[in-house]
Amino acid sequence: MTLARRRVIKFAMASTALATLSACGAGNMGGMAGGLMGGGGGKSWGEIAKSFKNLMNQAVAGVAETQESIAMLADALGLKQEAATLRGEAKNIREKGTSFAASDLDESVNVTNDGLGRISDKLAQAKTLNAGEKQKIGEAMANYAPAALKVGLAAVDAALAISDASSAGTPTPADGMEIIGLAKDIPTKGPAIVKFAKLSIQGFKDLRAIANENDIAVPATDELDALSI
Question: Which of 35, 36, 140, 161 is the most buried (most CB within 10 A)?
């Protein structure tokens, strides 16, 4: 089985678990996630914490790089204000690093969604793009794809961390204060990462379809396509 295929299977399981958890509410997180994801594999809090810290670093980089790539698209289409706003959000998430709050990512989702909408509208109307403009848009899309993949893969691990945490019980002072803090972060930051990833991946696909209609070259993105959610 290829790496991409393994990621598809893992992400599909994680996404199903998150959707069900969302519908059932946070109060039922423990039992429901354990049942959907096979009990979390009995990971220790030390293992869960290490994994979650790593994926948060990847998520921060992926979110910022995605917003910077979308800002490049906005610039190429003359949407200077939108580009500046997106870069400001990217700068904010980079500066906060893994100390970001779920509300920070919610704001990033709002800004990114607005930017993608405006870019999509402008690109769909731009039937007379010259070769230079098309090249800039293609370059921005080439940056967008790996950034969206990065945050998408972080979302895979975030969803699985939610399941693992739900099966690990409540951490105690013996586990350390850092782990206790991370245990509180996982059920809030994890879903926020997944939400941003879903928006980023779908946004890329929507823009790629419009780009293709305008004869704009976009690089192959097989692994990103495999993360469809």
Answer: 161
- pTM score, whole prediction: 0.81
At a CB cut-off of 8 Å and minimum separation 6, what does 102 contact?
188, 189, 191, 192
User: Which parts of the chain have pLDDT scores under 70?
Assistant: 1-41, 228-229
Identify the pLDDT of residue 42. 75
Name the residue range of residue 174's domain.
Answer: 3-226
- Number of domains making up the chain: 1
What's the distance, CA 15 to chain centroid? Answer: 12
The whole-angstrom separation of Cα 61 and Cα 222 is: 21
CB 66 within 8 A of CB 200: yes
The DSSP secondary-structure symbol of 77 reads: T
Tell me the per-residue pLDDT of 22-37, one tens digit each, with 9 for 90 and over: 444 434 434 434 433 4
